Amino acid sequence: MDADTKKSHEEFRNAIDPLKMIVTDKGEMQNSFANTAHYWAIRNYLNLHELLAVGVLKEIFDEGVCYDFWSGELVLAYIDALPLIKYVQAQKNSKNVYAELEKLAKRWRKRRNVY
Q1: What is the pTM of this model?
Q2: What is the CB-side half-sphere exposure of residue 63 using CA atoms within 13 A?
């Protein structure tokens, strides 16, 4: 990974536990989390995965190579950040945010047998 991607990954990892701490019993993110640096650290990292997903789904990137290198991280990031992803998608004009990431994560999740 380049330095910026590594930094984004580290910030994501540091932000996931605080996200998990505020998720409701229904699996929803509390609105107040959207006003934190942790929220934006997670969004920044998910944006990298969304870009990768678009490249794979548009056949710009080789899916086999991307799967071998990124599938574990992409699927886990999707699972860990799902409350935030659902929150973002519920906002006005945002239902398709992370749509490609979600498609690819679900496909790779089945392939990896991660439930």
Answers
A1: 0.92
A2: 11
